[in-house]
Design brief:
The chain is an alpha/beta fold. The protein contains six helices and 21 strands. The strands form six sheets. Strands 2-4-6-8-10-11-13-16-18-19 form a ten-stranded parallel sheet, with no helix packed on it. Helix 5 packs antiparallel against helix 6.
């Protein structure tokens, strides 16, 4: 392997305001575009040197760079916009603010840190597939991101809030991870247009707090879904036109409900299935009822919110008219109604949990029916 120290030692340091004439051309034969192959790059090689990596657009492939730490990150020229490091056995990377395009594919990266935590990052296109990332919290600082590929990593819990300030993000690729849970505890802006969650370990998709008006395409192929909440789909994903959901262990009744939802949408929703159709595997009517209960809960809670708003408007109107006693009487009756509805919601939740927990036990008797 070529020792990179020998190569970059031939380059003169960056001088602001002047064009750089490279003394050494890389394998592309083009100035400012360099591809280095079979490079060994270790921090200890540069402990006593002040050097810059060659070219402003740099591609390093099939080498050995175990850790691209702050010292190596500091060797990137200030005007560097494009960096590609592929198949270099790298496990740690420090991200510089001036980079716009970054490919770090086919490595072993488990940790990414930001070099300038208070800076505005210029990153627009970030490709990190085929690594070992489980913590992706750094992406929340990359507010100019347009494309983000995190496929084939080790993400288990996905927090929607990480993307709420990434207003330009059009593509979010998270297929072939280990995602079991998607968290959105409060109402959150989700700006993504194309969102792929295929081939993870998801069995539930709670979209109640997603505000995803831009989402046009959603992929959940190859997960563990038996049912989806069509109430949440209709209210959170208003403009979805492509929905790929095959290769899941669907309950037959709930799959029919999902397909009916598609047919009754104001605009066409396409399922780009590998086979042109989606199959179900669970014909249990008990399961169908159990899986429908969360939709009923959402509808009931919405009714509670609507009724609560009516109560407040009633109070305001009556107090202004000076009819406080009558208002208090009506409000008391409405409170009782709200309480009964809340108890109904609680029973629905308990029934859902009870039915869901006994499904496997009931399945024992199928052969006897």
């Amino acid at each position: 392997m070529v020792d990179l120290t020998e190569l970059i030692a031939l380059q003169r340091r960056f001088e602001p305001g002047k064009d750089i004439v490279w003394n050494v051309r890389c394998s592309t034969g083009l100035p400012n575009i360099c591809e280095l192959k079979n490079i060994k790059l270790f921090t200890k090689s540069f402990m006593d040197q002040e050097l810059y990596l060659p070219a402003t657009n740099l591609r390093i492939v099939n080498g050995v760079i175990p850790s691209f730490d702050s010292r190596l990150a500091g060797m990137l020229r200030p005007e560097t916009k494009i960096l590609v490091i592929q198949n270099c056995y790298m496990w740690f990377f420090v991200l510089r603010a001036m980079l716009k395009v970054l490919f770090l594919t086919y490595n072993m990266i488990s940790t990414i840190k930001l070099a300038e935590t208070d800076s505005h990052f210029e990153m627009e296109y970030l490709k990190l597939n085929k690594n070992q990332l489980s913590n992706i919290s750094f992406v929340s600082k990359l507010t100019k991101l347009e494309h983000l590929d995190l496929s084939e990593n080790r993400v288990e819990v996905l927090e929607i809030k990480l993307f709420q300030n990434l207003s330009n993000l059009s593509l979010l690729e998270l297929s072939y991870n280990r995602i079991k849970t998607i968290e959105a505890p409060t109402k959150i802006q989700f700006p993504v247009q194309l969102f792929n969650l295929g081939n993870n370990q998801l069995s539930d998709l709670n979209m109640k707090n997603w505000h995803a008006k831009n989402l046009a395409s959603l992929g959940i192929i190859g997960n563990k879904f038996q049912s989806l909440n069509t109430v949440q789909l209709s209210r959170s994903l208003l403009n979805m036109s492509i929905f790929r959901y095959d290769k899941n262990p669907w309950n037959c009744g709930r799959l029919k409900a999902l397909q009916f939802y598609h047919e009754t949408r104001p605009h066409k929703v396409h399922n780009l299935s590998s086979f042109g159709f989606v199959q179900c595997v669970d014909e249990s009517g008990v399961n169908t009822v159990a899986f429908k209960l969360p939709e009923l809960v959402d509808l009931t809670e919405e009714s509670l919110e609507t009724l609560g708003g009516s109560v407040h408007r009633l109070i305001d109107d009556r107090v202004e008219s000076g009819k406080l006693a009558e208002c208090q009487s009506r409000f008391g009756r409405m409170q009782q109604t709200l309480k009964k509805m809340a108890e109904g919601v609680s029973r629905l939740r308990n029934n859902y949990n009870m039915v869901n927990s006994t499904i496997e036990w009931l399945d024992i008797f199928k052969p006897l029916l």
